Amino acid sequence: MKRILVVDSDEQVASILSIKLKRAGFEASSAGNSADALKIIPEFRPDIIVSEMILPKMSGIDFMKRVKMNPETMHIPFVFLSSSRDVENKILALDMGAAAVLAKPLFINDLLEKLKEILGEYELKGSSVSEEKTPEGDISDISVLNILSILLENKSSGEVEFSASSERRGVIFCDCGNVVRAETNDGDNKDGMEELYKILSWSDGTFSVNYGEVSVERNIFIPQKKIIEKSVEWFREYSTILRSLPPVDTMLYLDFAKFVENLNKLPDDIDAVIKNIDGSGSKISDIIESCGGDRLRTAAYLKQLFELSVVLSSENVNTFYKAKSPEWLVSCGKSAEIEENKPEEKPETAENVEKPAEPEPVAEHTPESAEKPKISAWDELAKERRRSRKSGKIALFILLLAIAAAIIIFIYYRGLI
Predict the structure, then answer these.
(1) Which of 58, 102, 184, 303 shows the greatest Cβ crowding within 10 Å of its Cβ?
(2) Which runs of E-coded beta strand occur in 290-412?
């Protein structure tokens, strides 16, 4: 006898469906929400699940994701019932692996016919857990955090491979639901949490789960629940910062004049971010990728630069071109042009070589024609920053001395010393 689990928040609907299914020769059980259904599945072991799409605590689609991600239940077909006219959710359900989506209200005979058809197809294919394809999908449909939570719930072992745009690759290894290692193709893979945060920041791409025993060198040593908590906190903060910035594919341009003006307000290590903003503009996503390391800090620096108008989006690029930049920074940007327009050096011949002037009987000096050592724009910027901060410290020291002197004079005249 085939077993069918009915999941519907309307108790009356769930009860009527269960009775009708039992009369049709099925063994039926019901649950009012996804959480209860997940508790029933291991013992009841349904052959098919009939579920409402809109459920309390967890949506029907999220419920199906959890069932499909469990190697012991991934073969169970889903039939969704929906009273909503939202076509996108229905298409998403079918893309995620639902066998059918039926509109409510429905005739019980139509449901029975569809159930027999689906069960017949599965029997014909000889579907089993071992034959079921590897769970896979898009990160946009099921987030990395969701995948980790499901693996923890199911206490699964195996590896999850992630493939994102720009040839980015990552792997998360789990042992009995616990993440033991995270690595990426462009990282040093020493700090597993840093690599995990990097994968969490990917908003596009695909994933696939390969279940099996895991034997790898750990680079994550904290408990799984703590990993989930830290990951949720990191992702929430990272998402909040990104929402305060323009879309990640927006081109950013650096306003050198504003940059110099706000030197004292910027941290020393922000130079790594500045250097990754190309003169012809750079995408926000490319800047974050190029900086590597702590993406949350890079995003926070970009937000600070944006608030100070040090970087401008493509919409405000005219302001950038109107801004007057210091000569040494302008010359840095024009170095290639200067090199191009440099007059061609003529080969030395007897005709065009000038005779050296007679040296005067004075102390030796460097000829004017001798080349001066080249100083890069970034070295000049560093010197400017050091001079600025040194003068600030001197001013603070003088102010403190003045305050101390005023206090001593005040105490003296009060007759206390």
Answers:
(1) 184
(2) 311-313
Are the C-beta atoms of 256 and 323 separated by less than 8 Å?
Answer: yes
The beta strand positions in 167-213, using DSSP E, are 168-175, 178-184, 206-211
Per-residue pLDDT band at 178 (split at 50, 70, 90): very high
Predicted structure pTM score: 0.65
Q: What is the CATH number of the domain that holds 24?
A: 3.40.50.2300
368: Cα within 13 Å, side-chain hemisphere: 2
Q: What distance separates the 2 farthest-apart alpha carbons in the chain? A: 121
Q: Within its chain, how far is the Cα of 163 from the centroid?
A: 13
Residue with token string 């599945």: 41
- pLDDT more than 90, % of the chain: 30
**Which of 195, 215, 240 is where one domain is finished?**
240
pLDDT tens digits for range 183-210: 998 888 999 999 999 999 887 889 999 9
160 and 174 in a single domain? The answer is yes
Phi, psi at 331, each rounded to 5°: -65, -30
* CA-to-CA separations, 362 to 276, 359, 417, in angstroms, rounded: 50, 8, 63
